[in-house]
Amino acid sequence: MAMSEERETLTWDGFGAASRDLAREILADGFVPEVVVAIARGGLLPAGAIAYGLGVKNCGALNVEFYTGIGTVLDAPEVLRPALDTEYLGGRKVLLVDDVADSGRTLALAVKMLRERGADMRSVVIYTKPTTIVQPDYSWKETSLWIDFPWSAQGTVVEEDEA
Question: How many helices (H) and strands (E) does the chain have?
């Protein structure tokens, strides 16, 4: 299947606006998280920005691998070490953050894990794709295009050095 040349490009300014918009929407909804959990790696920067906007200082990360490249995925999402202390999250208000709900499989795994631990949680992403199997509680924008995020659009410096 050929990928469309058309892409959704999020700039750093757009990222800042999206993060603030989402923080405002979450607060307007009456949800005040005690902990913000990023789905690493894509959710790390959005989680930090949204946590800052919400005034939340308690942050953690859940390391999940699913996408191994553009259009390349594992058979199922896998939780990687170091592991998040999910026992601590039981009974707490937790905001789970990722960059995009594409297939939704990574988000579904993380939501299931946190709910099983008894977290009162909500999920937020910058982008939602129409193909996602789980709808996040909050999303800034929907698109069916490939998304270039400002933190990953240029690839890694390792790739540059190998070229």
Answer: 4, 8
DSSP state of 88: G
Fold exhibited by the domain 7-162: Rossmann fold (3.40.50)
Alpha carbons 57 and 73: distance in angstroms, whole number: 33
Residue 2 pLDDT class (50, 70, 90 cuts): very low
pLDDT tens profile 54-75: 999 999 999 887 655 566 665 6
Measured CA distances, 38 to 32, 145, 163 (Å): 16, 23, 31
Place of tokens 């996408």: 67
Q: Please report, for the chain, the start and end positions of each structural domain, with discontinuous segments joined by +.
A: 7-162
7: left (phi over 0), alpha (psi -120 to 50) or beta: beta
